[in-house]
């Protein structure tokens, strides 16, 4: 049984979707869409503080792989962000293949009849929730 939360991040250039697990490690919950400030060190510091407040013991970071499973420039940028998180927080950083999570999140929101303007604001945190839930299901 888990006793610490996991924080999932769907890292983008402009926004980072955030989801947090329950203490039991059963359910992922969407939390927020963080708008990056243009200073990666400040972005990292924000999430280190966020992890402390949530009592988290790990970050689960969506890794954007190419459709053939290889890693491109976007994955490299994401790994660099994850490494800064690991170094600054001292917490584990786990990478989860995030292929098609944004597409899935977009479809879910369309199916739920969420308007386009609203979808843009929430799609990243929904994608983070999908990433985290797939991780939680895998480790159970």
| Terminal Cα span | 9 Å
Beta-strand residue fraction: 25-35%
By DSSP, the count of extended strands is 5
Main sheet specs: 5 strands, mixed
The structure class reads alpha/beta
Which range best describes the helical content: under 10%, 10-25%, 25-40%, 40-55%, 55-70% or over 70%? 40-55%
Treating each run of at least 4 consecutive H or I residues as one helix, how many helices?
4
Listing every helix as H and every strand as E from the N terminus to the C terminus, the arrangement reads EEEHEHEHH
Q: What shape does the CA trace take?
A: globular
As laid out across the biggest beta sheet, the strand order is 3-2-1-4-5
Rg is 14 Å
Pick out the low-confidence regions: none
Q: Averaged pLDDT, please? A: 92
Describe this structure in words.
There is one protein chain. The model has no long low-confidence stretch (mean pLDDT 92). The protein has a five-stranded mixed sheet, with helices on both faces. It has 140 residues and is an alpha/beta fold. The protein is built from four helices and five strands; from the N terminus they run βββαβαβαα. The chain has helices spanning 40-54, 73-89, 101-111, 116-139; strands spanning 5-11, 15-21, 28-35, 56-63, 92-97. Helix content is 48%, strand content 26%. Helix 1 (40-54) crosses helix 2 and helix 3 (101-111) packs across helix 4 (116-139).
